[in-house]
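Weekly modeling sync, notes
Attendees: S.R. (lead), two postdocs, one rotation student

Agenda item 3: backlog of single-chain predictions. S.R. asked that every request posted to the team notebook include the full sequence so nobody has to chase files. The rotation student volunteered to paste the first one in as an example of the format we agreed on. Action items at the bottom.

Example entry:
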Amino acid sequence: MKSTPSVHSKTDNTSSKIPRKSDLFRLRPKIEISRIQGGSCLTRADALQFLRVLHSEIADLIFLDPPFNLGKYYGTPPGLEEGDSDSYEFYMRRLIREAVRVLKPGGALFLYHLPYWATRLSDELHKHLCFRHWIAIAMKNGFVRGEHLYPAHYALLYYAKGEPAHFFRMRLKPQLCRHCGKFVKDYGGYTSIIRDKGINLSDFWEDLSPVRHKSRKHRKANQLPLTLTDRIVAIAGVSGGVLVDPFAGTGTCLVSASNAGMIFVGNDLSRRSSKICLSRLEAAEVLHSKPTNCIQNLAES
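Predicted structure, as returned to the notebook:
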């Protein structure tokens, strides 16, 4: 199968520019900020507070993976996991408006959520952004809930601020039977094309698990697989561009961004998750020296 680039590249001189703290944050932000070698930053604050201290139109790509308000513990404010649905929606709508402000014209925003909340929040996204795709990510091992159909997918909403500045349609290798080695699907007369060029990525992703197996997780709570965030960055990322992740958790999307040559500004309120995130970035060689040497607290600078 022919190889294709996994992320766009900027053709001007901005791709080599390392942003200063003042390029990303407003004057004297009252949050805890750690600078990482290469221009990226990690902060520890409430997600809404974090977005409010960022300059307008700095992000090429924003990824929102908020708590689902299911009562699970992520170290977030209680209202995001244990509050009533109206309070949660009010918070998320304010957060979306701030994310839109931070997004560059032509930039992309992805919201990962349950279908119920994707529908409730989509009208807020429609007010400010252009709809691109509702991507269904197949849910593994779900359970029937009351008088409802079996839940079989998570929602990944993809919006752009006007005409997308960067878009890449990936091709996937066709799945093979692990026993006989043949294609698991019949592609008819297109078999030779599929074998040579692969399959165009659709808006239904059933080839990956939306949750990491417990043996490969960095925390007890749910954690997205790197394959998923790699794909998001490949679709709408740009080498030398800026990714913003207000709910960075243990840093999966940040690793994907760094591997693709992007600068990231990540945030999480949980001190434990932030420490795990730094360790993951170091293990992925995002940090090129010991954390104590290459990370400096800039909150007082």
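Discussion: group reviewed the output briefly. The chain has one domain: 40-297.
Action items: rotation student to repeat for the remaining queue; S.R. to check formatting next week.
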